[in-house]
Amino acid sequence: MAFRLLIDGKLVEGASRLDVINPASGTVFETCACADEVQLEQAIAAAKRAFPGWASLTQAARGDCLDRLADAVQARLDEFSSLLTGEQGKPLNQSKGEIAMAVATLRYFATQDLPLQTIKDTEEGRVLEQRTPLGVVAAITPWNYPVYLLAVKVALGLVVGNTMVAKPAPSTPLTTSLFGEVAADILPPGVFNVIIDANDLGSKLTTHPDVAKISFTGSTSTGKRVMESAADTLKRVTLELGGNDAAIILDDVDVAEVARKVFTAATVNAGQICLATKRIYAPRSLYDALCDELATLAQKAVVDDGLKQGTQIGPVQNKQQYEKVLDIIEEAKTLGTVIAGGHALDRPGYFIAPTVVRDLPDSARLVREEQFGPAIPVLAYDSVDEVIERVNDSEYGLGGTIWTAATDRGLEIAMRIQSGTIWVNKPVELPFDIPLGGAKQSGIGRELGIDGMKEFTQGKIINVARHS
Ligand code: ADP
């Protein structure tokens, strides 16, 4: 049967099978191997056994494996993309984009190195810093970008010499299983293992004494549990968690153009991106015009099965999230004015009409919480100081955008926003060589860039006397 686990280089059947739902129909369309605790132990043990051999290879040799993995994923692009749309819901062109990003990430980090650094070289001697791999890494991924986020962890973690046990979210296991199938032919046994669960093995993986590091992407609440699990053996953690990114629009913009860009940033992947625009702040002078533009864009957006050509926005990925977004919209209806959408689509699957709500108080759930769906609040502000204060008044601090005709004004505001990243006149952009990470409760640590690679290593200082 297809969609198996990868343990110690072998594709194996699980202790049970897991039903996988297509969010565009709300019905089961595939099944997948599901591991039990014994299989999880086997995977961790295999990763532990494989570690010394993999770590002793040169970075170039490991990079070569990652390059071949990238080739092999690329060769099955169509299969990966349609499977991703099937389990995740996003439009097929966005799935292809995600797989292409995953491939490019593997290729980029395949060529990166963390060479021995000389920190100091004086008469008294030399101080060097060596970066050594940590051991077995648990890579835990969510259901919004199951392939790209896995590829980031694989690329960063494996190239520097760690081995890995990857665990996808139970609602999007198929593409990770396929990734495992592809990797089985390329990576030495045990270097990369895939464990799929029914949401019951996460904490066993994160508390396991043989796991040295947890690289987790998911919700802030689960991230906190992961951090607790790591405490006992002081595991290293990288947490990429939730966000409530604001788009701050200044009074000098072309409203129609910015509305298009911000609408896309809010609704790509049906709004299910940690870095999606989740609240829009407009100066009072442009407020009505911007609300009208956004409402028109929302009403015109094509919401349908991601496999249908022309679909712009697919379903919400799972029933629980669908119900949560609808709850948040229900509350918004009582507190503000819905100018587009505001309801589920009357069809099977987890479709929500793109929703724009104006005149909400800052205390509304749609403003304060991470909605993670195709619903966006538009809020008016009167002064720049005021908007900065309101934007920063959040437990999150992941990203955000500023839109202005005067880049310098944007930069000045950017310097005052409490977040890990802020883009000025750009939608979300994630270059491989630029570190990414959250402020406040949006996370700990960095992914991507050299900083991202360092997170998968231990820095060791070697202090050598000049003379014996
Ligand atoms: P969501 O709440 O949006 O479903 P989560 O953040 O809970 O997303 O899930 C992200 C990933 O974390 C998934 O792979 C999930 O199975 C996993 N997970 C859930 N609970 C735990 C836990 N206690 N420890 C480790 N991983 C967990």
TrEMBL record:
<dbReference type="InterPro" id="IPR016161">
    <property type="entry name" value="Ald_DH/histidinol_DH"/>
</dbReference>
<dbReference type="GO" id="GO:0016620">
    <property type="term" value="F:oxidoreductase activity, acting on the aldehyde or oxo group of donors, NAD or NADP as acceptor"/>
</dbReference>
<dbReference type="InterPro" id="IPR016162">
    <property type="entry name" value="Ald_DH_N"/>
</dbReference>
<feature type="active site">
    <location>
        <position position="240"/>
    </location>
</feature>
<dbReference type="InterPro" id="IPR029510">
    <property type="entry name" value="Ald_DH_CS_GLU"/>
</dbReference>
<comment type="similarity">
    <text>Belongs to the aldehyde dehydrogenase family.</text>
</comment>
<dbReference type="InterPro" id="IPR015590">
    <property type="entry name" value="Aldehyde_DH_dom"/>
</dbReference>
<dbReference type="InterPro" id="IPR044086">
    <property type="entry name" value="LUC3-like"/>
</dbReference>
<dbReference type="Pfam" id="PF00171">
    <property type="entry name" value="Aldedh"/>
</dbReference>
<feature type="domain" description="Aldehyde dehydrogenase">
    <location>
        <begin position="16"/>
        <end position="461"/>
    </location>
</feature>
<keyword id="KW-0560">Oxidoreductase</keyword>
<dbReference type="InterPro" id="IPR016163">
    <property type="entry name" value="Ald_DH_C"/>
</dbReference>
<protein>
    <recommendedName>
        <fullName>Aldehyde dehydrogenase domain-containing protein</fullName>
    </recommendedName>
</protein>
